Amino acid sequence: MVIKFKKYLEEASIVKGKYGPGHKLELSRRAPDNYVKALKGDIELADETDDMIEIGSGSASIIVKVGGKVYKINGSKSGINNAFNHKSGGGGKADTHKATRVKEAVSLLMFKHYQENGSPIKEEDVIELLPTLKAEADMYIEKFYDSAMLQLDSYKQLKLIRGKTLTFEFQGDKHSKQIYAKAKQLGAPANADNWNPADLWVFESSFASSIGSELSGIETLNELNFWIRKNYLMGKLVPISLKQAKGKSTMELINPIKYKNKKLTYDFNLNKVLIAGSLKSIFIETNSGFTFKANSRGAASNPTLYLEGTMKQENFAMGAIDAKLWQKYHGGKVLNGTKIEPTPALLNNSKNIFNKYKGVITKKGNDILWKPDFTKFDTTLQQRYIAAASLLDFVMSDYNDVMRWGFFTAMKVTDTNSMYVKIK
């Protein structure tokens, strides 16, 4: 294992490795003070320049750029490699998905090792095992391991599976794939996360082989949800939704049937409304930090708004809000997307709505809401204007009910959702 780990270090080396100018880096917790003091901002590998600033001394070096300045970092090869991490997320959505896979893989390896050995797995062993889970070691950063160590404290609280031989897998792998397929067949949302957002599934190994035969006799979604709840209580399976842990990890059982009746401690009173001047986003934020969000994430010509809920102060995305559930909830009262046919009456009504709620909307680069020149709007912008106003009016007209619905739906707590354990 030590030999393989050394091979990984050679392949992932920042000094004379495979990475070129533009590759993103970040300082690790082992970076010396002179690096930390000088390199404030986004860091990337760069080419040499005549006016580059030298830091440190040693036989090895790398060239980096930070905030328009170029630095030559000198030191030992191991010292420089230990001072920096490869930064994930530099390549947009593709890198985000890769980083998420690595993050979940680190947690899986941590839980599995503890279950089988009674102790945390070493960081170097995690890095070596990542490729076996189709996770790219280049995307690994230390905070994933730190988070998994914190999450382990919560995992230890799962007494129902303590001491058992378990099978661990990602959502949609061999055994959970059968469960999600059955849920979809019985009418669950097409997006798996909108039914059960578990990132990892843990099964008692002797039970896993019988899942297919047990599912064959289930005829309704409620029956499937009950089957999952029953087998969780029997210690045969655990669906786990993971969120980045910082400082201290917590665990919460999200059982939709009981959670909907739970007395919430969050303050849902309105804090502010943010509407971008581009009309591509609307954020309705509560005092607790829960935010009902609508974003346009399609092509430039697509005015459709997609909904999600986030909890700002807890720094985690709760999840997307299923479009079909939203349509069923508002009953056609919210206009959205390319089906909107702009008319002068619709546009003027939308302007009246923005004026009606002008007192709660943050004014920043969005004068277009109150001073629109509709003659200069193309069709897409007109559709965005109407969609934003329509959504705002619906939410504000029945604020308490809509925000509570949005909270529970983003938490995957509806009549059709399945239970899961959230570890963060």
Gyration radius (Cα, Å) is 25 Å
Distance between the termini: 30 Å
What is the overall shape?
flat
pLDDT averaged over residues: 88
The overall strand count is: 16
Decide which structural class fits the backbone. alpha+beta
Helix coverage percent of residues?
Answer: 25-40%
Arrangement of strands in the largest sheet: 3-5-4-2-1-6
What number of structural domains do the residues give? 3
Largest sheet: 6 strands, mixed
Residue stretches low in confidence (pLDDT < 50, at least 5 long) are 1-9
Number of helices: 15
Task: Characterise the protein shown here.
- There is one protein chain.
- Helix content is 38%, strand content 19%.
- The longest helix is centred in the N-terminal third of the chain and has 25 residues, at 93-117.
- By secondary structure, the protein is an alpha+beta fold.
- It folds into three domains: 2-86; 93-257 and 418-423, no CATH class; 270-410, no CATH class.
- It has helices at residues 2-12, 33-38, 77-83, 93-117, 123-129, 142-155, 174-185, 205-208, 211-215, 221-233, 256-259, 323-330, 344-356, 379-397, 399-410, and strands at residues 24-27, 43-45, 53-55, 60-66, 69-75, 84-86, 166-170, 200-204, 237-242, 251-254, 270-275, 281-286, 290-295, 306-311, 316-320, 420-423.
- The protein contains 15 helices and 16 strands.
- β12 and β13 form a beta hairpin.
- The strands form three sheets. A six-stranded mixed sheet has the order 3-5-4-2-1-6. Strands 7-8-9-16-10 form a five-stranded mixed sheet, with helices on both faces. Strands 11-12-13-14-15 form a five-stranded antiparallel sheet, covered by helices on one side.
- Mean pLDDT is 88; it is low at 1-9.
